[in-house]
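Re: that chain you flagged

S.,

Sorry for the slow reply, it's been a week of failed gels. I finally had a moment to sit down with the sequence you sent. For the record, here it is as I used it:
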Amino acid sequence: MEFSESLLKQVADMVYQASGIVFQDSNLTVLESRLRTRIKEKNCSAEAYLQELRANAQEFRDFLDFVTTNFTSFFRYPRHFEMLEKEILPRVVERTQEKKLVLWSAGCSTGEEPYSLAMTVDNFLRANRLVGWDYLVIGSDISLQSLFVAKEGVFPEKALVKVSPHIVARYFTKQAMGYQIQPSLAQHVRFDYHNLIYDNGLRNVPIVFCRNVLIYFDLAVQLKVLENIHRTMAEGGFLFIGHSESLIGITDLFSPQSFSQGIVYVRS
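Prediction finished late last night. Pasting the structure tokens below so you have them in one place:
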């Protein structure tokens, strides 16, 4: 099945207007592949499906879910979690008076990142005997289907292949359907539907992970997203982005700071 350039552009424009995600030459094949799958499931023509996307709000939401679901894994890029535990959290704890740590995982997909953050914070508090401290990890995403999976907190065995056995033993329970996040950890994780092009209403958050998300936006949307993240964060807060991403030349709202395992951006 071949799609005309005009049809692909119309669908790409609809996705962009709704989410800010850009599909162009470098990643247009992803959109085309997802569109092809959906049309095959519907057993209709490309033109008929385009009309359904325009007329049926629920179908468009489902398609947006399908298109914006991205790859993730537990403790993806481990150096970030090492920096968080050994260098960032001690700094945040030192200047936090309320004995509560709040972290935001922006673009959390199916939940592996926020749960990894929660495990890291929990382990940090245990290791440093910080009694009386509480923590909350907020995971947000534009995909309702991904958030449903995240909230369920059940993951297949293959998802834990690279997770150390002692972490699995401490934070997961083996079930028939896979591995369930322990309730004692899950109670510290909250999932919200949120489109990053809008303000989420959070304030004074000291740590934000927004990794491998900005690459899907054009410059105008990147700036809007970064302004919203900046508004959410505490002054001097720490922003983690993808290890191959950079904010240099994009905005001066955040300044790069070197740590032993890499760069973290600090909110100005």
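What I noticed first: Residues 78-95 form the longest helix (18 residues).

Talk soon,
D.
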